[in-house]
Every structure is written in C-alpha cells, then in structure tokens.
Task: structure prediction
Amino acid sequence: MGARWRAHWFHIIFGHEDMAGRRFDLLLIMAILASIAVAVMDTVAQAHARYGKTFYVLEWIFTLAFTLEYLMRIVVVDRPWRYMRSFFGIVDVLAVLPTWISLVAAGSQYLLVVRALRILRIFRILKLTRYVGEADLLWLTLVRARRKILIFFSTILTLVLIFGALMYLIEGPEDGFTSIPTSMYWAIVTMTTVGFGDITPKTILGKMLTSLIILIGYSIIAVPTGIFTAELAAGMRTKKRKLMSCARCGRTDHEDDARHCRMCGAKLPLESG
Amino acid sequence: MGARWRAHWFHIIFGHEDMAGRRFDLLLIMAILASIAVAVMDTVAQAHARYGKTFYVLEWIFTLAFTLEYLMRIVVVDRPWRYMRSFFGIVDVLAVLPTWISLVAAGSQYLLVVRALRILRIFRILKLTRYVGEADLLWLTLVRARRKILIFFSTILTLVLIFGALMYLIEGPEDGFTSIPTSMYWAIVTMTTVGFGDITPKTILGKMLTSLIILIGYSIIAVPTGIFTAELAAGMRTKKRKLMSCARCGRTDHEDDARHCRMCGAKLPLESG
Amino acid sequence: MGARWRAHWFHIIFGHEDMAGRRFDLLLIMAILASIAVAVMDTVAQAHARYGKTFYVLEWIFTLAFTLEYLMRIVVVDRPWRYMRSFFGIVDVLAVLPTWISLVAAGSQYLLVVRALRILRIFRILKLTRYVGEADLLWLTLVRARRKILIFFSTILTLVLIFGALMYLIEGPEDGFTSIPTSMYWAIVTMTTVGFGDITPKTILGKMLTSLIILIGYSIIAVPTGIFTAELAAGMRTKKRKLMSCARCGRTDHEDDARHCRMCGAKLPLESG
Amino acid sequence: MGARWRAHWFHIIFGHEDMAGRRFDLLLIMAILASIAVAVMDTVAQAHARYGKTFYVLEWIFTLAFTLEYLMRIVVVDRPWRYMRSFFGIVDVLAVLPTWISLVAAGSQYLLVVRALRILRIFRILKLTRYVGEADLLWLTLVRARRKILIFFSTILTLVLIFGALMYLIEGPEDGFTSIPTSMYWAIVTMTTVGFGDITPKTILGKMLTSLIILIGYSIIAVPTGIFTAELAAGMRTKKRKLMSCARCGRTDHEDDARHCRMCGAKLPLESG
Result:
C-alpha cells in the first residue's frame, strides 16, 4: 500500500500526462515565478521599506513549500540518490538552501553575504526549462553550428586584443583607457555596437581607429547571423522532404505527404519509419 | 429614399472602390495626419508659445470633423452597435473623446491631466492601419514563428534575470545598480546592444561579466533574425507553387515543376501563363 | 576637323573603353577625392591654422580644373542642354559653383555662409557613382522589396509616435523628455539600438516601458534583414536556373550550363536569349 | 647524423602529425597565451604594483624560450631565408624583438616607448592562426562576396561624408561637431548603431536629421547581413552536390538527384553511401 501511495504521488510530482500531474506543474511554475518576484522586489529600497516584513514571511512560506516538495521528490522517486545528483536535483536544493543557511549563520556581520545567497534562489527559474519541449530545434541548430561559432569567437577575441592594445597605446590612461583589459572591455562594447560611452576616444588618431574598428565589427555582425540562418534554413528544408526515390523514373526529393511521383505519376513506396 | 441616401453615404464612407470613396479616404488620411501633427507640435514649448491659439482652434475643428464622421458612420452602417464595439469603432471614439472631456472637466487643477488626455488623440494614427492591406504576409510570418519567438523571449528574460542579479551582487548600489529590477533594465539595455551608458560597470569583475553578457547577447541577436528569415524564405518559396488543382482528387498546392498530382497520380492540367 | 577634335575629346571625357578614356577617368576620380580631402581637412581648426593658405590655393586649382572640365563637357557633347539638365550635369555645376559664389559675395559678414556653401562641394563624390556598375543587383533587390520596406517604416513610425507620446507622459520634461518630437527622437534612437544616452528614463515605470520598447525594437530588427535576405537569396537562385523543360521527360529546373537532362539524359533544346 | 637530428626536430617543430609534433604545438599555444596574459596584466596599475617583478622575470623567460624556438626553426628548416621572409617568420621575430630592444635602448627617457614596443608582443597571438584549419569556408564566403562588400562600404562612406558635412553645418562646433572629420566619426558611430553619446545633436533640425540618418543606417544594416547569408546558403547548397565524376566526359559537380551527366548525357555511376 505504501508502494501504491508512492506511485500515486510519483505520477503527480514527476508526471505531466494526466490532470493531477498538469495541475501540480502549473501550481509549481506559478510558485516559482511568485517566489522570484518576491526576491527581486525585495532589493528595491522603497518596496523593502514598505513591504519588507511581508516579503520575509512570503520568503519563508515559499522556502518551506519548496523544501517539502524536495523531500517528497526524494521519497517518491525510485532511485533518490540518482535524482539528487541530477541537474534538477541540484537546482532544487540550491533553490532552498540559501534561506536555510541565513537562519543558521545569522550573525549581524554575515547579513549581507546571506542576502547575496538568497538571491541565488532565482535559479529556481531554471526549473521552468523542464517544461519547455520546443527549444530542441533551436538548440540543435546552435549545436550544429558550434565549430563555426567557436572560430568566429576566436577571431573576435583576437581582434579585441589587438585593437584594445592599439587603443591603449594611442589614447592612454588619461582618456580612460587605463589598461589593456579596460581597453579590451571598451573594444568589445564598441565592436558589438553597444557603445556605452563611458570611455570614448579623444585624439584624432583614436577616433580614426575607432571608426575602423566599428566598421569591421559592423561587417562581422553579418557572420553569426548568416551562419545561424543558413543552418536553420537547411534544417527546416531537410525536415520537410522524403528521401526515397520513384521506382519508375528515379525522381527523388518528394514532398512529405506525396504518395505519387510528381513527374511520372507512379506510386511511391511506403516509408518505413 | 432615406435608405438610398444611407446607401450612398455608406459607399462613400466605408467603400474604397469608386472615385467618391477613394477621395473620402484620402481626405480622411490627410486630416488624421494633420491632427496628429498639431497635437505633437503643441507639446513643443516654443511652438506652443507662438501658435498655441491656432493649435487650439485647429484642435477643435478636427475634433468636430471627426465627431461628425463618427456619427455619420453610426447612422449609415447597417448594424451600428456592432460597428461601435469593433476595433475601429473604439479607436474612432477614442480619437475624439479626450478633447470633449477636456471641455467638461476644465477646472484649473485638472488642466495637466486634460493635456495628457488630449495626447491620447494620437491613437488616431491607428485609423491609418485600415488602409494598409499589404501587411498580411509580414504578419503571417510573425504568427507562424510565434512559438519560436516565445521560447526566444523566455530565454532572453531568464538570462536578463540571472545576469541582472549577478551584476547587482558584483557592482552594488554605489555604481548605479540600485536594485535587481534596475539591474535587469541595464541587462536588457546592454544585451540588445542599445547601451545608453546611464549605468556602467566600474569594477574589473563587473567589466569582465559585462563583456561576457554582451558577447552572449551578440550571439543571440542571430536567433530571431534567423528564425524570421528562414520562415519568410520558406513562405516565399511556397508562394511560387502552382495554384491549379488536380482534376481528379481536387488537391491544390503542387510544386512548380509537378506534372502529376502527388496524391492520386493523375496528370495535372497545363498552366496557361 | 572641329568635329573630329570634338569626337576625340568626347571619347576621352565621356568614354570608358580605350586607354585615354580610362586614364582620364582615373585622373578625375583622384582629383575629386583630393578636392574632398582638402575641403574636409580645412574644417579642422589646427589644420586650417597651419595649412589654410595652401588649402585656399588648392581649392582654387581644383575649382578651375573642374570648371574647365565642365565647359569641355558642354562643348564636346552633342546635346549640351540635355547634359546640363541631367543629374550629373547639375552635380558637376554644383561642384564648382560654391567657390565661384564665394568670390562674388566675399563680404566679411557673409564669410561663414560662403564657407558653408563651399562644403557643398563634397557632392563631387556623387560623381564617383558614375564609375560603379556593380551596384545594380543590390539596388534591384531594394527596389523589389520597396513595398515591404514602406510598410515596415510606417509600422516603425507609428510605434515611435505612440511610444514617444507615452514616454513624454510618463517621464515628462524634467527628465529630458521635453516634448513629443524630442520623445520621438529618443524612441528612434532607442528602438534602433543606437542608444546615445543623452536622454534616459529615470522613473521605474519609464524604465519598464523602455525595456518593453527595446525588446519590441529588437524583434523588429529581424524584419528588414529577413526581407532583404529572402529577396536577395530568391534573386540569386533565379539567376542560376534555366527555365526550359526536357522534351522527353518534362523535367524543368536545369542548371545554367546543362546541355542534357539530368534525369533521362535527353538533349535539352537550345535557349534563345 | 646532423641531418637526422635536423629532420627529427623539423618533424617536432613544423609537423602536426605524430605525438611529439602535437605535444610541441600544444606547449607552444599555451606558452603564447600565457605570455600574452602576462603582457596584458602588466598594464593594470594594481597588478603591476604587486606582481611587476614576477611579470618582468616571466617576460624574460618567455622571450628566451621564443628566441630559442625561432633560432631552432632557422636551423632545422631547409631554406632558412625563405622561412624568415614568410608571414610567420616575421611574426615570430616581431614576437621577441621588442623585449630585446628594451635591453639595448634602456635609457630612462626611452622607457615609455619601450613599454609600447613590448605590447607589440601580443602579435604572438597571430601565431595561433596557424592552428586554425576550419576558417576556410567562412573566409571563402567573405572573399566571394568581396565586390558586394566593397560597393557597400563605398556607399556607407559616401553617406557618412554627406551626413557628416550636413551635421557640421547644422549643429556646428559649439555642440561638439568641431570639424567635418569629427562629424564623420559621429556619423559612423551613429549609423552603425554604436551611439557612444559623447557627441549628440542639440538643435531640433539636428535631431530630425539624426533620426533620418539612424533610420537609413538601420535599413542598410540589412544589406551586408543579407549578402553574407545568401552567399553562405548558396555555398552550403553547393556542398551537398555529388562529388563523383562522369565516366565519359569527366564532368564533376552534379546535382544531388542527377542520374545522367548534364554535359554529355551519359549515365552516372550509382553512389555507394
């Protein structure tokens, strides 16, 4: 009977198929979003001054609920140890640990650090990824283009290093280019067209080099976009085509729902799988 | 005879086919653009000081004209109630209401609020969308890519939340990162390469994380562009298909070079042109 | 004999085929670039202080040379009046007029205005477009996508108007949003991810709306890129394909250099044109 | 025996095939990255104050190692003179020269210049490109699109010149537009959506022109991206062709579904796999 009780709750907590499982999922997502909202709003000075106490209570309610959920997951799952070492097992414990630690280590001097730990609770949002099943195609496209992206980033970083060093030599510390790392930060900010404006070239030579750097960065922006688009378009085209060939005229490249060859009209063989 | 009068004006106001209907449309578009220009220019201090009175008179002329147009629409249309609750019915009334309310509520203390209400009059520009019939393909592409766009935005917002919280911890209030919401605003401004520069990292660790955030945002910029382009290219390719239908099974949407129906194998008719 | 002299110079000045014509073209391009460089450098205070006199002399040498060239063009061309009213006829005269006017109108009080007129001389660079024959494909793609681009810009401007008005209401003059036109300028700067940072939101509501505006603008950046890429890709694909069909098996869509059908091996008909 | 010794070391230093060669490559890459890290960190004031001496010693260790490597390369290679004049021969010597020069020219007054020379050592990173063999496709795509890119940049620069001159006339030196070159720098920063904000328009006319410039630049951003994507997609499609050759006429590069050679009509061999 204990086994049946466990199986029942396992379906509710881990399953997404039946009504009860979906309701639990929805409830959990809303609780995660609400707990993040509380943690985020608590850092706003005015909100903390007015609703600090409410936030504190809500914080503990969420922590207790998530702790209970975590313990339930360990109890109902078949191999608790495997779950605890899985990605979401670690995320689940990271989502409640900071608040519990703040209780134990609550000395006046550790207060700020604990507050920092509490913000880690936003990693609860990673739990949401569990519910996204559509991200696969995008992810696959990124994975397929990974070598091209790696080369692209190496090129960018080499350019950032060379341009950063040149700007450090030309402009120097008095114009904000205080070191090569700072210059490299500026080069990244500039080449990606972010352009904060906290550091800007003052000399004529510096402005000329900056113009060149920007135009190069501007051209390079085409590269990752082009890579990704070409890969995605190729992926979408492949998915929509049958790979079998017509037995009579040999024509391949038929549409997904084709039953007859569009060239000679012969019946196409059935696809297995 | 009243019916003929109504039908006559219905064609002028709601129709776009004959000369009179097109002239009315053109006149209305120009009136809308002119009334918006007046409302916009009235907020410029120098213009208000010099032409404030003229603007006030023009404002009332436009309001009276649009009110008359709205009443005419109600009178000539077959089902007035249905029109009034339609999107453009609500827009049409919103376009004149603020000025009328400013008359009723014109106390000295409400003056500023009324001015604000008057600016709502710019929603008249939404009336222009009535005349744009070409936007369909673009809109369709956006709709078809909506799931991918949703996932993309969820990813962006998760990254914004995590990076915002990290920058809040690293930089802190003294460098402008006063709260997590402010940090998230900064993360959005940075990841989208807007880069206002009102808040910028000061510490070395903050600058390093900023560089990382920018490069990630820079890579991600490829995603929505790629999605949209691939969808649009697929849509344009589909449009080039044959529009004729199979004589035997009625199947339409054949490929450009198809000679036989891909469903039943029957010969397709030759296209003339 | 005068006719032969004219024909000879017509070939040199207007022709691009033989050695003399190409040498003249090259000389003219270099003179145009040099004269622009002089006009540009003359506005730099330090350069003007040191080389102002040299710039003045060079300015007059270029003006005399371009005037002589303009007169020569009128003399050697068959229909001078038609040339003078052509685009490049007007550009050619605009390229020398400002300097000549500065001579006539050289009163001390007009000096600045004249200086301004002299800068118009940079329109000489438009002459360079005469030598660019490769821009056609890009231009054609832009022309073919013009309706989509028009709709896109209308949408952008409507959004700019609505968001500009909203930000004017939310932030108000004290935060830099002094009028709706200024707010619209800010909205354009923000939505296009330029982000100067001369005007930035200060209130929480303003920052939230700004985040929304940026994310919308960020999504919309995909639209013109996608349109252009899809059009260009379609244009490139069309150019590379033969449109004739195989007489034996009816297969269309052959490569540009194909002589035999790749399906049945039958000889393809020769293309006329 | 000296020849055998040379051949042995030639394989280690120049070869990438066997174990020893790959180990040497890996060691060299790590040494290059470490030496760049030292040179970069030495420009940070705090790091220089604390670890300046360590950096100095490490600097000399790397310089000695790279000098030894350079001499070894000259000794073991067959035609030393050809290597020394090759691209990587020059890079290899540039990577050690600055530190050696700092020894000879170490007068107190040359100190800053020498420091500058030492930074040139970062060109060592160019050595890394030797190990990147995957960059070919990207590079090829850029090369194939070079004419289009050239026209694109000419257009951009013409627009930058015209808009820069116009903004100089409209805004003038008192608003930061001190000269046409500065205005052109601003136009590049603005049109590429970098937008530092160090120079911004103050007048209404200037803001209107800026909005126009931004929208034009925003449209133009679609051009290089579109060119690159279309070229890359075309390149990827080409790659999917059959690599086998026709047995009769030797023609390669057939389409994926080709059964007959499109040149001579002979049957193509079946592909195995």
User: Anything to note?
Assistant: Chain C touches chain D through 61 residues (CB under 8 Å). Residues 175 and 200 of chain C are 7 Å apart (CA to CA). The longest helix of chain C spans residues 45-76.
